[in-house]
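QA checklist item 7 of 12: single-chain prediction sanity check.
[x] sequence parsed
[x] length recorded as 109
[x] structure emitted
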Amino acid sequence: MENIIKQGLANLWKGKEGVGGKLYLTDQQLIHQPHKANIQSDRVEIKLADVDYVELYTNKLFGLSVIKNGLTVVDKTGTPYKFVVNKREDWKNEIERQLETNKADAISN
C-alpha cells in the first residue's frame, strides 16, 4: 500500500495546455490527477524508480522570467514533466528526500 507523502494543486504542461489538477507524491510514485474539466484528462504516473532528477524553472509573464513556481521532473528516458506548483522548493526537497529513502531501502534489502 502506498503512503501519500505530499499533495497539492498543480498544473502539468501538456503541449500548450496547462492541465489543472492535483499532484500527489507517494513513497512509490508521483501522480498528477487532472480535474474532470480539462480537455486532456489522463492521469500521469511517474514511478520514483524512473526519476533521473528534479529541477526548478521560472515561468514567464509577457516574456519576462518572473513567476517562480515551476518544477521539472525528468525521467531516465529524458522525458521532462513540467509542473506549476506552490512552494516548488518544498516539492523538490520532498521528492529528492523520497528518492534517497527509496535508494537506501533498496541497498539495505
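[x] summary fact logged: The two ends are 18 Å apart (CA to CA).
[ ] second reviewer sign-off
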